[in-house]
Design a protein that fits this description.
It is a single chain. This protein is an all-alpha fold and about 475 residues long. The protein has three domains: about 1-190, Growth Hormone, Chain: A, CATH 1.20.1250.20; about 200-250; about 265-470, MFS general substrate transporter like domains (Growth Hormone, Chain: A). The protein is about 80% helix and about 0% strand. It contains 18 helices and no strands. It has helices spanning about 1-25, 30-40, 50-75, 75-95, 100-125, 130-160, 165-170, 170-185, 200-220, 220-225, 230-250, 265-295, 300-305, 310-330, 330-350, 360-385, 395-430, 435-460. Helix 9 (about 200-220) runs parallel beside helix 17, helix 12 (about 265-295) runs parallel beside helix 17 and helix 17 (about 395-430) runs antiparallel to helix 18 (about 435-460). The longest helix is centred in the C-terminal third of the chain and has 36 residues, at about 395-430. The chain is globular and about 70 Å long.
């Protein structure tokens, strides 16, 4: 009986990983298809970033709220609800025939993904209460959550090249249906009720609205003017909404983001690191895919294949080597070294020419990015959770994941705007379109590399880890 129950738990973990993988893939799978989406629906270079950001922002904004909903009303129920919403919105994305329709569907898809992902993490914690088995289960779940996104570029290239961009969304339908059916039979139906009965809806709404408004202002800054009344007014309103979020969090009974956690140095530093690093990571996926297609004239399939070295290195480190590196060298040194690899990779990308080759200009920085991302994700989570009480470690992990997604969205909006502005400037002084595009991407890669370098320096000199058992 006990053996059968144990087997069911691990089968349930596989179901949760299937759902999580499908959701994580959609943060990156669109990058290879962006040029096809751009030409098909008439996006501009800057508004194209909303195809990525609409998903990432609502995902980040509702991640903590999704976990709270599961605590209050049933984790299996809300995991399945999240999967249903995500799958239906995937169908809507696949059928989209206008910019507004696609962006709206992507935003709703992000909400479904946030609910399912947050509840999946809670289910893993509840299904594996024993420390040893929980560590193994979280290792498997963490690999899927961390490494799944890197597979998205490759899969996106295959689907876009073999069919068209619509299929990067439609492929979710059979997976979502399978996850729903298996969830009915394998996920535990019992509900562990949270001691907190308050739903911080206003917190989720204000922080998401603040970030979306900030990104909207940044994306439109080049066209409207950075010092125009429109841009300044939008940024000011975003600041007001963020202040309102902090005010709500300081007074609500069960806050989405307890401000007391930010008094812990490792939590504060790791979240700032997550914001800086994710800005560079999102931009790497987005800009390198555009560079290879629009400058080097790669097909979507060739772009997907170009990401394979980074994907393989990330997978190897995430599954087998990252924990050993942390055990050998400690959390902060591992994180600083990994982020330094990321910075070096982006700085190499910042020198790519308009007539670049894969072997000399694309492959070396891809390899460095693979090492950097593969090493960094595990110690970043450990740093966020290391000095918090054990009963709040899941919350700390959720907060750093939220910071990662929010930082990536804001960073991508800023760096895409930098690339667009530099491209427009170069065209205005007589450069060809290809040379102008390359110049814009190079400047944005440089900014991303500096962001990753700041994250590496902050990790090495700012983190102070008191407990060493987590190593």
């Amino acid at each position: 009986m006990e053996r059968a129950k144990n087997r069911t738990r691990w089968l349930a973990l596989i179901v949760l990983c299937m759902g999580t993988l499908m959701i994580v893939l959609d943060t990156t799978i669109v990058n290879v298809a962006l040029p096809s989406i751009k030409s098909s629906l008439g996006f501009s270079d800057t508004t194209l970033a909303w195809v990525v950001n609409a998903y990432a922002l609502t995902y980040a904004g509702f991640l903590l709220l999704g976990g709270r909903l599961g605590d209050l009303f049933g984790q299996r129920r809300f995991f399945m609800l999240g999967i249903v919403l995500f799958t239906i919105c995937s169908l809507a994305c696949g059928l989209a025939d206008s910019q507004a329709f696609l962006i709206t569907a992507r935003a709703l898809q992000g909400i479904g993904g946030a609910i399912a992902s947050a509840v999946a993490l809670s289910l893993v914690m509840n299904m594996f209460p024993e420390a040893g088995e929980r560590a193994k289960a979280m290792g498997v779940f963490g690999f899927v959550a961390a490494g799944g996104g890197s597979v998205g570029a490759f899969l996106g290239g295959i689907l876009t090249g073999a069919f068209n961009w619509h299929w990067i969304f439609l492929v979710n339908l059979p997976i979502g249906i399978a996850v729903l059916i298996l969830s009915l039979y394998l996920l535990p139906s019992e509900h562990v009720r949270s001691k907190h009965l308050h739903l911080d809806l206003w917190g989720a709404l204000t922080v998401t609205a603040s970030l979306m408004l900030a990104v909207y202002a940044i994306v439109g800054g080049n066209a409207a003017g950075w010092f125009s009344i429109q841009t300044i007014g939008e940024l000011a309103m975003a600041v007001v909404l963020m202040i309102a979020f902090l005010w709500i969090e300081s007074r609500v009974r069960a806050p989405l983001m307890p401000l007391s956690l930010w008094r812990i140095r490792s939590v504060a530093i790791s979240n700032i690191v997550a914001i800086l690093w994710s800005a560079s990571m999102f931009s790497w996926f987005f800009l390198s895919a555009l560079y290879m297609q629009l400058v080097l004239q790669y097909t979507p399939l060739q772009v997907g294949l170009a990401f394979i070295p980074a994907n393989l290195i990330m997978a190897i480190f995430s599954i087998w080597l990252s924990a050993k590196v942390v055990h050998r060298f400690g959390i902060k040194h591992s994180l600083a070294v990994g982020l330094s690899f990321c910075a070096a990779g982006l700085l190499l990308f910042a020198r790519v020419p308009s007539v670049g080759s894969f072997l000399f200009d694309v492959l070396p920085p891809m390899i460095l990015m693979g090492f950097g991302a593969g090493i960094s994700f595990n110690p970043m989570l450990l740093a966020a959770m290391n000095d918090v009480p054990e009963n709040e470690s899941g919350l700390a992990s959720g907060i750093v994941n939220t910071s990662f997604m929010m930082g990536g969205s804001l960073g991508l909006a800023i760096l895409a705007s930098i690339a667009s502005a530099e491209t427009a400037h170069l065209v205005s002084v007589g450069a060809t379109q290809v040379i102008a595009l390359t110049g814009g991407y190079d400047l944005a890669f440089l900014a991303g590399g500096l962001s990753a370098a700041c994250a590496a320096a902050l990790s090495g000199f700012g983190l102070y880890i008191r407990k060493h058992a987590a190593h």
